[in-house]
Amino acid sequence: MDRRDFIKHIGGAAVATSVVLSACKSSNDKPKALEGILDGQGEMTYRTNPNTGDKVSILGYGMMRLPVEEGGTLRDHPNSPIDQELVNQEIDYALEHGMNYFDTSPVYCKGMSERATGIALARHPRNSYYIATKLSNFSPSTWSTEASKAMFENSLKELQTDYIDYLLLHSVGGESKELNSTEMFNARYMDNGILDWLVEQKAAGRIRNLGFSFHGDPKIFDMLLQWHDEGRYHWDFVQIQMNYVDWNYAHVIEPENVNASYLYEELHRRGIPGVIMEPLLGGRLASLPDYIVKQMQEREPETPVARWAFRYAGTPEGILTVLSGMTYMEHLVQNVATYSPLRPITPEEDEFLMKVAEEFVELKTVPCTSCNYCMPCHYGLNIPVIFSYYNACITEGKMPAGNTEAREYQEARKRFLIGYDRNVPSLRQASHCIGCNQCVEHCPQKINIPEELHRIDDYVEQLKRQ
Amino acid sequence: MLRKIRICLQIIMMALVTLLMLSMGFRVHLWAGWVAKIQFLPAFLAFNTVVVSLIGFATLFFGRIYCSVVCPLGIMQDFFSWLGGKAKKNRFSYAKENRVLRYGFFAIFVIAMIFGFAPLTTLLAPYSAYGRIVNSLFKPLYDLLNNWLASMDAAHDRYNFTEVQIWTRSVTTFVVAVLTLLILAFLAWRKGRVYCNSICPVGTFLSFISRFSLLRVRFDKDNCKNCGMCEKNCKAQAIDFKNGKVDYSRCVVCGDCLDKCKFDALKYGRDLSAFKSKPVDTERRAFFVGAAVAGTTAAMAQTQMKVDGGLAVIEDKKAPKRQTPVTPPGSVSARHFQKHCTACQLCVSGCPNNVLRPSTDFQHFMQPVMSFERGYCRPECTRCSEVCPTGAIKTITREEKTAIHAGHAVWVKENCVVLTDGVSCGNCARHCPTGAIQMVDYAGPNGTVQVPAVDENKCIGCGACEHLCPARPFSAIYVEGNEMHQIK
After folding, report:
1. In degrees, to the nearest 5, what angle opens at C-alpha B40 toward C-alphas B39 and B46?
2. Within 10 A of A430 (CB to CB), how many other CB atoms are there?
3. Fewest CB within 10 angstroms: A34, A100, A427, B397, which?
4. How far apart are CA A77 and CA A64, in angstroms?
C-alpha cells in the first residue's frame, strides 16, 4: 500500500467511525466460526435519518425471501407455509445484534410476509425497531381509493401496529401495454388521491417517513424528485437498486434501465436518504465465476464473496440502510458480521470492484434477480428458475464449450441437459413460452422475458440435437 | 451336464432379454439388441433368413433347444415349473399329444398372419408376450428404482441417472400382460410346458422339425429299472417310460430326465429311428382369473403430477381422435406395420420421449402408435427403428428420418389460444423442425391476428407442434397419420 492509498484508507475509516453509534450490546455470543477474521469484531454500524433522527442499522432485513417449512423459500416449495419459528429466531437474532429496520410488503411471499413479520416483531417492544412496508397496489383492482386505503389499513393489522415507520409507494416507474409510466403512476397514486391521503396519514402520525421505491422509467424518478424540489411533496427517503454492477452497467445490461450512480447522485445531491435494495443482485453477486472469486480471495482469503457487495452498498454517504432478504440463519450471521462494523470500500477497492463488474457484465447472464413478480406465468412456466439455472451454469463455468467432439464438451452437454430437467420440469421449461408477453410489464429489471426464454430454448434445442 | 449348461444359458439369456426390455438408459440395445433379433417370429417377420435357417438347423440337429434357452417365455415357464416342483415333487406323468388343439392354434395363427389380423398374432407370439409382461409389470418397478437413483444422483450432483416418467401407456395391454403372466404361471406350475406344446405357434412349428432331430434323448433298455423318475420329472409330459418312448415333438431338451435317472438309462445322443407319438390332453382353464386384481394395479402405476401454488396449474393433455393412427418413422405404412409387428413393446419401452404406446384399437391390438401428450418424436432420435427386431420399424438414419412424412399437422381453429385467449403465440411455428408451419394474418373477431398455417408438403408428423401447443387439454394443432409414409 503506497502512501496515497494509506491516507485514503484512513480517511475512509474516519468517515465510517463518524457514523458509527454504539449500540451498547454485547457481541460475545456471535458464533465466530461463521465470520471472517477481519469483520464482526465490533458493533453494528448505524446511520441517522435526517428527518426523524432515527438511528437505523446499516443492515436492514428484507422480508421477501422468508424460509418455508418444507425448506428453502416459496420459490422452492410454492405451497409450503412460512417457517414462523425460524423467522422468529432470525428476527430475535437480528434485534439482539443491533438490526432495527425490517422491510416488507403486502405482496411478498404470496401475501404472507407482513403477517409473519408482524408475529415475530410483536414479541419485542415497538420502539426497538422500524417497520417499512409498501402500498403495493399493482393490480388494477387495487387502484381505487377504497382498495388502496384498505391495503394500508390491512398492513397495520397484519403488522400488529398502529403506525408505519417507513411507507413506500411500491416500485414506481413501471408501465404496461395499455399505460405508459406516467399514466401508470397517475392511476396508482394520483387519480385516486391516495398520495395526498398518505401525506395526511403522515401528518396524523400513522406514517413517520414517506418515500418510494423505484424501478423502470427514470422519467418518473426525475418527476418525483422535481416535486420534492418544488416542495409539492417531501420524500423522507427513496429506495433504489444499487450494487457494484448496476453502478455503471445497469444501462449496458438493459438499455431501458438507469445506472445506480445516477440514482444515488440525484438523491445525495438533495440530501434524501437512500435505502438500498438488491445489493447482491438477487444473490447473484454471492456466486461469481471462479476466476473472479480468485481475485477477491487473493486480496482477502477469509472474506466471503458476498461481503464485498455488502460493503460496497453500505459505503456511500447518505445510505440509510442496505436491505438483504436473508432466508437462512447463516446468511444473517454473516451479514451482521459484515456490518459490525462496516469496513467502507477504499477508493482502490472501488476500482477493483468496477473491474469485477465489467467482467460480470461480459458473462451475458440474464439480469433476473428471482423476485418472482412475473409469476405465476399463465402458461405454467417457471421463469425465475429457468433463468437462475441458466445463469448458474454460466457463472459456474458449466456451459459446454470448445470442440463439440471432445469428451469434456459431451460431458458438459449431458450435465447441462440433465440438470435442466432436474431444475425445471419439462412442462415448465422455456419451450412452452408462447411469447404472449404478459409477464414483461411485471419485471422490475425490464427483462424482455419471452425473448430471453426463446434464446435459452434455442440453445437447449441445439444441444439436444447434437 | 446338459441340464447345467441349459440353466446357465437360460439365466444369461433371461438377464439379457429382460435388461433389454427394461432399460434403454445405458444403451443396452447396442450390445444386447441381438437377443431380440434371434427370436424366431421377429426374425421370420424381418425376413432374416440367416437367423431363421440357423434356428431350423439347430432344431434339426439338437431338438427344440430354442424353446429351452432362447425363448424368454419358455424360460419364464421353466421358472414357475421349477417353483411348482419345489411344492410337489415328481408331479408329472405322460400325456398324449393333443394334435387338434395344437394344429388348430397353429392354423389360426398362420391365417391371422396372412391376413394381418393383429389381435391374434400379437397375443400368441411368445417373445412379445414376455415383452409385454416386462414392459407392463417390471418396467414400472425398474423405473422407480431408476428414479430413486436419479434423486440420489441429483442430491450428490452426479449425472448418471435421469428421472423418467412412470405411466401406464395402455390399460388394455397391462391387463393382457397380467392375465398372460397369471395363466402361464398357473399352467407351468401345474403342467410344465403345456403352453409351449399345445398353443405356442413357434413351438408347434419347431416340433415339425424336432421330430426328426439328430441328437435326442433315448432309452437304454438294459439299464432302465422302470422307476419312472424320468416321466415324473418331464415338464413336457413327453416321456412314456413304460413303452420306453419320448415324444420328440414336445421334448425341449431340458436335460431334467438325464439328471433324474440314477441308472444311466437315458442318454442324449444320436438315434436314427424317428418315433411318432400320440396326442396329449391339454388343460386350458380360467382365462379370466385375476382381471379384477389387474384393474387396481393399473391405477397404481400412474405417476402423480406435481402442482405448485406459485405456479399455474397445468392441465394434462388429452389425445385427440386421430382418423389414421400415426406409426413411427421407418414403419413404411400402416399395412406393413400391422403385418410385421408382434407387439413386443421393445420400442415402447425404449422411446425416450414417451411418444410410443400400445394401441387400444382392436385392429392394431397392442401394436405401438404415436401420440404427443408427453413429448414429441424428436428429430435426433431413431431409437425405435434401431431396436425393432421384426423389421416392422425399419432401421433409419437421422438424415433419412427428416425425409419420412409419417403424418401431417392439422390446425383446430376452435382451440387456438390466439383466438380463445386473445394472445400472440406461434409456439408451433417456432418449434417445427422442418419449417412447415408459418404464421399468417387472419381476420379474427377482434382484428387481424397471426395464426398457424401448415404446409403439408413439408410436415413430417413429428408432433412438436401438437406437444408444445399451449391449448389444453386438446391441442389446437394435431397430427393425422399418413396411411403410407411419404418419402420426400
Report:
1. 90
2. 24
3. B397
4. 15
Q: Are residues A143 and A241 in the same domain?
A: yes
- Write down the domain spans for chain B: 2-132+176-270, 304-487
Look up cell 473472479; give the residue: A292
Please indicate, yes or no, whether residues A278 and A204 belong to a single structural domain of this protein: yes
Q: What is the mean pLDDT of each run of 10 residues along chain A (466 residues)?
A: 43 40 42 53 94 96 94 86 96 97 94 95 97 94 94 96 97 90 95 97 97 95 97 96 95 90 96 96 90 93 94 96 95 95 95 95 90 89 94 90 88 93 93 93 90 96 91
Q: Assign residue A281 a region (left: φ > 0; alpha: ψ between -120 and 50; beta: otherwise).
A: left
Q: What is the enclosing helix (H) or strand (E) of A48? A: strand A46-48
Query: A180 touching B, CB under 8 A?
Result: no
Mutate to test the interface with B, among A68, A377, A379 (most CBs of B within 10 A): A379
Question: In 3-state terms, what secondary structure has residue A7?
Answer: helix
Same structural domain, A290 and A408: no
Architecture field, domain B304-487:
2-Layer Sandwich (3.30)
CB contact under 8 A, B424 and A380: no
Nearest to A308 by CA among A347, A261, A343: A343
Per-residue pLDDT tens digits for A305-325: 999 999 999 999 999 999 999
Domain count, chain A: 2
CA count, 13 A, side-chain hemisphere, A178: 5
Q: Chain A, 365-404: which have a CB under 8 Å from a chain B CB?
A: 372, 375-380, 382
What's the mean pLDDT in B89-94?
90
How many Cβ pairs closer than 8 A exist between chain A and B? 76
Phi, psi of B357 (to 5 degrees): -155, 155
Q: What letter does residue A127 receive in the DSSP assignment?
A: G
8 A C-beta contact, residue A111 and residue A81: no
For residue A110 the three cell numbers come to 404470496
Q: Please check whether residue B282 is in contact with residue B101, taking contact to mean a CB–CB distance below 8 angstroms.
A: yes
Cβ neighbours for A4, distance < 8 A, ≥ 6 positions apart: none
DSSP A155-183: HHHHTT-S-EEEEEEEEET---SS--HHH
Phi, psi angles (nearest 5°) of residue A451: -60, -45
Q: Which residue of B has its CA nearest to A75?
A: B310
Where are the alpha helices (H) located in B195-234, listed in sequence order? 201-210, 229-232
Q: Cell 440367416 sits at which residue?
A: B50
Residue A372 lies inside a defined structural domain of this protein: no
Contact B426 A418 (CB under 8 A): no
Rounded CA-CA distance B390/B238 in Å is: 32
Which domain covers residue A450, as residue numbers?
Answer: 383-465
pTM over 0.80, yes/no: no
Radius of gyration of chain B (CA): 26
Could you read off the pLDDT of B199-217 as tens digits, one per residue? 999 999 999 999 999 999 9
| Pair A261, A409 in one domain | no
Residues A327 and A460 in one domain: no
